[in-house]
Amino acid sequence: MTDKEILLAAYDDQMRGAPPNPPAGITHEQDGPLLRIVGQFRGFVGGPRDLGVRGAELDGLIARQRDFFAARGEAVEWKTRGHDVPADLTDRLRAAGFVPEERETVLVGSAADMAVGQPEPPRDVVLRQVTADADMHRIAALETAVWGDDMSWLAKDLIGRVAAAPDEIAVFVTEAGGEVVSAAWLVFRAGTEFAGLWGGSTLAEWRGRGIYRALVAVRAELAVTRGVKYLQVDASDDSSPILQRLGLHAVTTTTPYVWTPPAS
């Protein structure tokens, strides 16, 4: 096997089941081969690389997820990967009313390699780990400003994760003059060799100064101290080239397909 095949096999084997210790109010359910997560800002559905169903049976499985969340009046995201089978899964999702959002690149690499030569943030920027609820609301405001979408739900999500399993998430911010200018978090995956790099958003006027790289490095170093072998990221087109230069490898792509209830 090539290095990419080894990394992808580890990802498929360890990162596609139910994450442990869900926050209060969030439940994990199985529907055949699928994991269904209920109680987040929108529903979530995911499964193994091969769902093991085809044709009309697959259509029925898709319709069941859509109808389940329709009854709740909620949107639902079906997380697909570029190497999934059956190959017509995305066509069948579209036919059932699911709409693709932006495709991202799944990157995997060695935590130890990513922790080498840890860069420092600029002198006028302070990098710190945070746990307070107020900081999570500041992070949600930052993410809203960066991405132009309402990300207020993120504060509740991060607060719930810290409360449910504080040893499984580490949240970092960088600040300048008391303002949060970037944020990112590291999510440990108990029972696996993986941790995930999430967030990684920086205000436009603060980009290009090494802040993003410093946030990657501090999380990689923490992962190594916790015995993590692999780091994984779902990367945007903006961050993917940076992360690949830092040592991560593109193993596949991921595209969320989202069904949204009709406006009443």
From TrEMBL:
GO molecular function per UniProt: acyltransferase activity, transferring groups other than amino-acyl groups
This protein's UniProt keywords: Acyltransferase, Transferase
One Pfam family, short name: Acetyltransf_1
N-acetyltransferase domain: residues covered: 125-264
The protein's Enzyme Commission number: 2.3.-.-
Official protein name in the record: GNAT family N-acetyltransferase
